[in-house]
Amino acid sequence: MTLGEHLIELRKRLMIAALALVVGMVVAFFVTDPIIHLITEPIRTIAERDGDAAKVELMFSTVSSAFDLRLRMSFAIGLMFSAPIWMWQIWAFVMPGLTKKEVRYTWGFIAAAVPLFFAGCYVGLVIMPHIVELMASFVPDGGASFYDAAYYYDFVFKLLIVVGIAFVLPVFLVALNLAGVMSGLAILKGWRVAILISVIFSALATPAADVASMLLLAGIMTVLYFAAAALSLLFDRRRRKRDAALLDGTP
Hints:
about 5% strand
């Protein structure tokens, strides 16, 4: 294909992806209520614990803030709903330029990264209520907690995204190993640094006083790291056997 044909193909793929996103946003706009109900469960729990719902509320500080919140949520949820379509459009544009081996590795990367990302989002959703409730416990007697809706949503959304990405990082280590950049032994030797980074990341992603959530997140990330190291060692072993077989077969 010529450069012009590539640009026409890219425009076509982008238009299909954008249309899928818009449709996903429209559908998502009508399901924001259960999502809001889910992420605000800690607020209701705190209100029930304190016995005064008026002291713990989700606050919309401007006339349009409720609509703005739903619009932002619709974009995020619509992006997820339409992911199979726009991801396929990207893949269909890139795939003709890849070798069979690169295509196989890419499919393997996607198959591992996507479930791990959503698993990380789920873990973030599990620890999120504990974080909110723990932070609310520091409100002094006579004080009240009014959570700005936009800020509260940003907190939850960023927590899920950060934890989700953290779960995908071991897949990148395996990808570096397959690319020949890092050996499995080199990955394994960095276990001390990996544990330290996991603990620091978990401490930053969770409140300092929430030790249980921090240890849970750090523990899962550490297990994933060692799983990536073990898989890389296995790939290295297979690569050495293949190279040895090639050498034995040479005249």
